[in-house]
Amino acid sequence: MRFVDEFRDAELGRAVAAEILGEVEAGRHYKIMEVCGGHTHSIYKYGVDDLLPANVELVHGPGCPVCVIPMGRVDDSIAVAHHDGVIFACFGDMLRVPGSEGTLLDAKAEGADVRMVYSPLDALRIARQNPDREVVFFAIGFETTAPSTALTLKRARAEGLRNFSCLCNHVTIVPPLRALLESPDLRLDGFIGPGHVCTVVGARPFEFIPADYRKPVVISGFEPLDLLQSVHMIMRQLGLGRSDVELQYSRVVPYEWNLRALEVLAEVFELRPHFEWRGLGFISQSALRLNAAYADFDAELRYEVPGVRVADPKACQCGEVLKGVIKPWECKVFGTACTPEHAIGTCMVSPEGACAAYYNYGRFARDKEVV
Ligand code: SF4
Predict the structure, then answer these.
(1) How many CA atoms lie within 13 A of 30 on its CB side?
(2) What is the DSSP string of 298-363?
(3) 338 CB less than 6 Å from ligand 1?
(4) 235-278, pLDDT tens digit by residue?
(5) Is the CB of 168 under 6 A from ligand 1?
(6) 322 lines ligand 1 (CB under 6 A)
(7) 170 Cα: distance to centroid of ligand 1 (angstroms)
(8) Rounded Cα distance, 115 and 70, in Å
(9) CA dihedral 30, 217, 140, 282 (to 10 degrees)
(10) Model's pTM, two decimal places?
(11) With a 6 A CB cut-off, is 71 part of the ligand 1 pocket?
């Protein structure tokens, strides 16, 4: 398939890996963070890390939107789902994310009408088909998916649908990256930038990383050759003592923003003053909520939600995984008490989560017994 097969060419992959090796400085350990969960998934699916020199380490950032949802937000969603007459619509991954007293799937088993959808428009269709019920869509994702939620809300308004609302959990990528860069326990050499998010925001918002922290950023595609080439571009910058934002994924991403997408976001959303991220705590202006013009569609205003901060289970080390401080298999419960079937933390739920990627592609410490 065009634009896919040529980016999975093993021979070319080995050639790029040899070029990366040529850029490596002996005795130096490099840590490169990929920000997007889609990158984490591709790296372990295709064994990209196996082609890298031993002293080039890939660490995984907070780029999986399911993984960063804190337990309190899951509790809020379950509380809304239990309201009389509510049909609660969400993506499949979210059904299995644990809250303090269970998951949305458990709520469904207890009688709540929770339905899996593939897009916000699916939820809107359910609202049209059930005019005597209230349909709440659990919106989740970075800037990549927020425009589709915004367009759905615009359509709901245009159709005069009053039985549709949105529990908004859209987050933005720049504030958590800044929080990570300010973190004293993490030393990073460069970033593989999030190709999907950049289709909306462009590459320019990442210029603060070289400007303020002197680290290179390469916005990358998702095929194995994209990732290898991005690592090579970062290594070349490091070798030359440069730190810039470069665009590897230029076949899809514009350097500048997607103006139409940003306009629709501005029409429907505003920044929250702060939002809790799993493992990272509260981060200022890191998430979106519906603005005053769309307040009628805001489930947080339509329903009472607990809004309580809930501490992660003691055994859960998702926060350290999301900050790239530990590898998934270093978590005490990885592959034993925590598996994709019975997840304790969020990173094991979504296929884009680092723990699920490690588990699904057999990446764990060799001496660790995995069930
Ligand atoms: S193994 Fe489970 S509990 Fe541990 S970090 Fe991963 S998802 Fe969280």
Answers:
(1) 27
(2) BHHHHS-------PPPTT--HHHHHTTSS-GGGSTTBTTTB-SSS-SSGGGTSTTSHHHHHHHTT-
(3) yes
(4) 999 999 999 999 999 999 999 989 999 999 999 999 999 999 99
(5) no
(6) no
(7) 22
(8) 21
(9) 70
(10) 0.92
(11) no
